[in-house]
Amino acid sequence: VKVKIPFGNKYLDAIFSVPEKKPTYGVILTHGAGGDMNFPHLVSLAAYLASHGVLCLRFTCKGLNIAYRTKAFKAVVEYLKLSDDYKLSGVFLAGRSMGSRAAASVIRQLSQGDDDDDGFIQGLVCLSYPLHRPKQQSKLRDEDLLLIRCPVLFVSGSADEMCEKQLLEGVVSKMKAPKKIHWIDKANHGMAVKGRATNDVMEEINAQVFSWLRENVQLQNK
């Protein structure tokens, strides 16, 4: 289902992937610095989640400024929260690369304000989180991650040039939130693995994301 989400005096293009049964939980998903919501990995993940009963709303926001991307993400969260069509118990925010930075930033801002005491946001999924620029390991983009309290899943390639394995493990060890890292062996920042079919890698990512979502929803429902 295609929708346009109001954002300031503009609209963001978005697509709902809707499960057959009425969903209780949703995932808001966005892309990295390049590309848009039709990036193959996002399309694949959205279809997988919907087929497993999770609503997925993916959207395009072209800005390369992280503050702008964060504002856009917030607008989408508000839109889904107030939606009459889909009454959800909670959502997970997810993004690829720069999109995951924006998602982390939204969660940090909402948790510092008073507006997320209702627990609508259940967790964060970071696909290829860009912890640093290539070859600039001394400047880590970890400030939002260290302040987040909700569960976080990282899915990263072990050969990601923007997220060195030991550095991410170091940041994660300092995080207060419940967290998990799933390493895609030998994958780069774009999740490409030499000698491995793209679909095969996407299936691994999709299954990991879904099983983690399911665990976290169950943990909260106990």
From TrEMBL:
Name of the gene this protein is made from: Tex30
Residue ranges of every copy of the KANL3/Tex30 alpha/beta hydrolase-like domain listed in the record: 27-206
The protein's name: TEX30 protein
Protein's organism: Copsychus sechellarum
InterPro entries: AB_hydrolase_fold (IPR029058), KANL3/Tex30_Abhydrolase (IPR046879), NSL3/Tex30 (IPR026555)
